[in-house]
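STRUCTURE:
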């Protein structure tokens, strides 16, 4: 059986929710610092850590700290603007793509790639339902570990 595996498209679709609206609905303000962090994060495909987002900002935002970046990324997760990617090492990684998709992780270099595969969905749903009768799946994400072409 041939699977419809494909690389996931860009990080966010044109139908993505407005970050200011989602934050406002959660009682948060889209401050200048949050805007800068969103700009540094939203179009990334590399599943950055908070430190990597902080490094991207550099000196461009006065007074921004690593803690602010971390807390802001966590706020983005809470309101649905980002997802935490499964434990890939010692640092939490974040993904601006919030739609259902899966990840390929190179255990050698740490590269994380998004992948879409419709064939994985029914398998995952069936496994969950068979293993835990009555379990209601809210989301499904498969993490595949191995070595990328550059590392093999």
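SEQUENCE:
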């Amino acid at each position: 059986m041939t699977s419809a595996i494909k690389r996931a498209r860009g990080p966010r679709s044109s139908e993505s929710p407005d970050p200011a609206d989602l934050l406002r609905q959660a009682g948060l303000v889209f401050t200048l610092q949050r805007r800068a962090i969103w700009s540094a994060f939203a179009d990334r495909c590399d599943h950055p850590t908070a430190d990597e987002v902080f490094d991207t900002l550099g000196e461009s935002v006065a007074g921004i700290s690593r803690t602010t970046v971390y807390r802001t990324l966590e706020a983005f997760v809470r309101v649905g603007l980002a997802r935490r990617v499964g434990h890939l090492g010692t640092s939490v990684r974040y993904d601006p793509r919030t739609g259902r998709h899966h990840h390929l992780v190179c255990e050698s270099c740490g590269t994380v790639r998004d992948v879409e595969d419709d064939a994985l969905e029914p398998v995952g749903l069936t496994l969950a339902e068979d293993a835990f009768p009555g379990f209601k799946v809210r989301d499904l994400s498969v993490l595949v570990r191995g070595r990328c072409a550059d590392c093999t």
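REMARK: The chain has two domains: 18-98, 99-152.
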